[in-house]
Amino acid sequence: MFRVKRIICFRFLMMLLTSFSSICAQEVSQKGYIITRDNDTIRGFIQNVNVNQFVVCSFKSNTSLKAINYLPGDILAYRFENNGKFFVSKEVPTISGKKVFFVEYLIKGKANIYFRRDDTDHYYIQKEGDDLTELTEPPVLTKNEAGVMYYKPQKYTGKLKYVLSDCPDLYDEIDGIKLYPTQLIKLAKDYHDKVCDSSKCIVFERKINPVKFNFGLFAGASYNEFVFNSENYMDMHFGEFLGCKLELENIFFSLERITISTGVSLQYFSTYRFHTDVYRANNVFYDEKTITNIDMKTTSLKIPLSINYTFSQTKFRPYVGLGATNTFYISQNKDLFVSDYNFYFGKAIPFYHLGILGSVGMKYRLNQNHSVFVELNYENSRNVNVNKMLQMENHYFSFQLGYMF
User: How buried is residue 122: exposed, middle or buried, by Cβ count under 10 Å (0-12/13-18/19+)?
Assistant: First the structure.
């Protein structure tokens, strides 16, 4: 019966996820424009999906029309109006030869900086009248004279000095630079200041959102079962918990919809129906199938870590998440007895459990810094032990209501 309940709850979460995807399908298309090969500007709506924005532009002039997919080279450029992201068709060097991609402008002026992502990040520089040069290089593993393996340092500083050789005053800055968007944009702006007598040299500059920390408090209800083995388990039971949450935004450049969240929650587990094949009463053990009510008197401290994807950037922000949980059972009823566990661990519930976490939620932005959220979670956690007969599981569903600030 408990397995049937888990399947029903899991299917319910999947239905919510499908509904969120459907609700947000329209919002994924945002206002923008394309520039055709004839230099005509056509305004409309562009699909804002991070995973494919460098290889296709899905555009429609009206939301009621079917989208047209433009490949790199089919159009000169496209741009979003809300966040200013600006992509152009460029032939770029790759391991298999030159290919045409959409690359994102980080800054456009006397020296242009471009960005592209596939399975890694690529940065490019191009000065007026020169060819495009890739600054990033694939990691190369090599061995030194002592036989120690190490990755060769990238040579982007030498490439930058070569491209910007008409401005040797920047060499000290280049020596200390890292391949981060903010540092490359600053270098390009400093180059402008040296070689251009007008601020209008900077035609476009990509706004880089700083990393943002959001703190929140929440409370909620849970519905879970503890399973020691096929003969010893608890029926599903409701509980309550409270905690705090920390959310990090803009961790990954050009992936504004991805956030990382963690936090701490505290929960007390009380009375469950306990199915057991070994019953203990007055220190006497009875080897028989028994169903009894027992107060677990158990307190857990949980620290989750998840990566979340937000479907929408409006006030209503549905999201999904996937991650891991670290649960510490800091107290429990000493009269709770499960033979193999008590003999091996000295108690029925092992101290530390590691689990997987899936979540579906909705955040509503009250203003720039404050929001409320609701969240549904499913967790499957167990203690770490090589013996499967000593791996206790906690199948855990929860509902959270919280406030972020």
Answer: buried
Please name the residues in contact with 74: beta carbons below 8 A apart, sequence gap of 6 or more: 37, 89
Pick from 366, 361, 360: nearest CA to 315? 366
| Cα distance between residue 219 and residue 91, in whole Å | 52
CA 105 to CA 188: how far, in whole Å? 12
Contact 403, 232 (CB under 8 A): no
pLDDT (tens digit per residue) in 29-84 = 789 999 999 999 999 999 876 557 899 999 998 888 888 999 999 999 999 987 77
CB 32 within 8 A of CB 44: yes
- The span from the CA of 78 to the CA of 74, in Å, is 11
How would you classify residue 111: left for phi > 0, otherwise alpha for psi between -120 and 50, otherwise beta? Answer: beta
Domain residues of the chain, as ranges? 31-205, 210-404
Q: Say whether pTM exceeds 0.85.
A: no
pLDDT digits (tens, 9 = 90+) for 308-340: 999 887 889 999 999 999 999 999 998 888 888
CB atoms under 10 Å from CB of 384, counted, come to 9
Residue 129 CB partners (closer than 8 Å, separation 6+) = none
Gap between the Cα atoms of 376 and 404, Å rounded: 16
User: Length of the chain in residues, anyone?
Assistant: 405
Dist CA 283 CA 267 (whole Å): 29
CATH architecture of 210-404: Beta Barrel (2.40)
10 Å CB burial of residue 134 (0-12, 13-18, 19+) is middle
Reported in sequence order, the residue ranges of 335-370 that DSSP labels E, i.e. its strands, are 352-365
